User: What shape does this take?
Amino acid sequence: MGAMRPTVLLFDIDGTLVTTGGAGRRAMDRAFEQLHGRRDACDSFHMSGMTDRGIVRTALRVIGVEDTEAAIDAGIAAYLTHLADEIQKVEDARYRVFPGMREAVLAARARPGFAVGLGTGNVRDGARLKLERVGIHDQFAFGGFGCDHENRVELIRRGAEAGAATLGAPREECRVVIIGDTPKDVDAALGIGAECIGVGTGTFTAEALLQAGAHAAFPDFSHRDALPTLLGGS
Assistant: This one.
C-alpha cells in the first residue's frame, strides 16, 4: 500500500549516485591552498556525509582561521572553480554512475505519483557540475542542498518539502525515502521521519548502514531487491 502514497525520493550524490574519482577532495584541497596556503586543511577529519559548507567551516577551524560567513563563502567559491577543473581531469573509468542507479532514477521518474530529487551536502552548483559530467543532472528537478542549510537533517527536510510541493501534497501525507551511503544519510532520514535505503558503494558497507538504522540496504542498486524496495516500499 505504501507505493500508492505520493512518494518523494531524495538521492545523495557522492558515494551513492556517482564516484568522481576524488575530484571533490582535490578541489577542496586546492581551494585551501589558494586562499590560505594550506593544502592539508581537511586531512584531520572525514568528509563523508558532511555538507560543503560544514567541510569549509571545519577546515577553517583546523587551520586557525575564523569561520565567518564571508570566509566560508570565499572557500566555496574557490572550491567550485577548482571542482570544474578537477572534474574534467578524471578519466571515464574512474568517474561513473554506480551500478543500477541510472536505471533506478529513470524507473522512478516514470512512475505516476513519484517525485525524484536530490538530498546532498553539495551546494547546488557543485551538484550540477558533478552530475552533468555523467549526463544525469537533468533527471532531478528539485532537491535539498548544502547551500540550503549546513545541517543535513534540515537540508533533507527542505528537499522533502520541495518534492511534496511538486506532487501537490502535504509532506506529512507523502512517503519520503532518502537514498544514501553514510550513517549521516540515515540520521537525516530518521530526523524527518523518512525511510532510508542505504547503498554500500561509499565508505560504509550495507551491513553498517543497517546497523545505523537504515530501513533497507544493498551492496549496490543492481541487487535484485533494490529497485522493488525503492518503488514499492519495504
